[in-house]
Design goal:
Blueprint: H1 8-14, H2 17-40, H3 48-75, E1 83-94, E2 97-101, E3 107-113, E4 116-126, E5 131-150, E6 153-173, E7 181-198, E8 203-204, E9 213-217, E10 220-229, E11 234-245, H4 248-251, E12 261-273
Antiparallel strand pairs: 1-4, 1-12, 2-3, 3-5, 4-5, 5-6, 6-7, 6-8, 7-9, 7-10, 10-11, 11-12
């Protein structure tokens, strides 16, 4: 806004006395504002990029504080009975697979597993009320029947299969160790050794799949369970787990299957705390 300065004679000649007083009052107010700005000192205006960097730095500091707090909670040792061992037994069910190829001739391959026994021996340590580490030895055995069909020819054979696994789990509990009922989730990995062998004669005219498989695979195991504290350091545990690996059984069939191998286990047993 621009202001035009008039002499006293022009002002008297062109405006009335009231207008002159208004102009003088306005000029006085503007002078007061200028003096206030000078007394307050220069104002600093940050560009958007600087404000954004400041906000990002503040967010990183808050995230670092939260991560440090979580780490302290996770590694803080708990009091009392820190170690435990468990022995669980139950039923193991492995997934099936089937493949069809429409060609000349048409081909079909599949295997049909049966339920079998499972065993899980474990030992671990409570890091605190919420997190625990656990080392597992897992065994299960399942019978299965392999079938292949190619046009008028076919092949069928009964086989035994077994799995031995060494797995390390991280457990997340949803109630503190003072509770008698403690549900949990777990996830882990390790190594699984799978073996299949012939359990009966070969039926049919097709060339059979390899009668024996010995292979090791990297698994992913997830589980949900619950611990029930009884007394004197003893407890009861139920667990339902799923272990997934590549499928060496389907890989030997013709045509070969495409699904992975899943091992489901319903387990019941006891836990001892030290």
């Amino acid at each position: 806004m621009a202001f035009t300065c008039l002499s006293s004679a022009d002002a008297v000649g062109r405006t009335s006395g009231r207008t002159s007083r208004f102009a003088a009052g306005l000029q006085t107010r503007l002078d007061r504002l200028d003096r206030r700005r000078q007394d307050a000192g220069p104002q600093v205006c940050y560009p958007d990029s600087v404000r954004s960097d400041h906000w990002t730095l503040a967010s990183l500091l808050m995230s670092a504080k939260a991560s440090l707090l979580l780490l302290i909670v996770a590694i803080h040792p708990c009091q009392g009975q820190r170690y435990f061992v468990s022995a669980l037994g139950g039923i193991a069910t492995i997934s099936t697979d089937a493949t069809t190829r429409l060609d000349s001739p048409n081909e079909v391959s599949l295997y049909k597993p049966e339920n079998g026994l499972a065993l899980n021996l474990a030992g671990g340590i409570h890091l605190n009320d919420w997190f625990s580490l656990q080392a597992n030895y897992v065994w299960n055995r399942n019978d299965l029947t392999i079938t292949e069909i190619a046009g008028p020819a076919s092949f069928e054979q009964d086989r035994h299969s077994s799995q031995h696994a060494a797995i390390a789990d991280l457990l997340l509990y949803f109630r503190s160790r003072r509770s008698r009922i403690r549900p949990y989730l777990s996830v882990g990995s390790g190594l699984v050794w799978l073996r299949t062998a012939a359990a009966g004669p070969i039926l049919g005219t097709l060339t059979p799949a390899p009668p024996q498989i010995d292979t090791a695979k990297l698994p992913l195991r997830v589980a949900v369970g619950i611990d029930l504290l009884v007394r004197h350091g003893w407890g009861f545990r139920y667990s339902f787990s799923e272990t997934r690996t590549a499928n060496p059984i389907s890989a030997t069939l013709e045509p070969s299957g495409a699904r992975g191998l899943a091992n489901y286990q319903n387990l019941f047993g006891i836990v001892k705390y030290f």
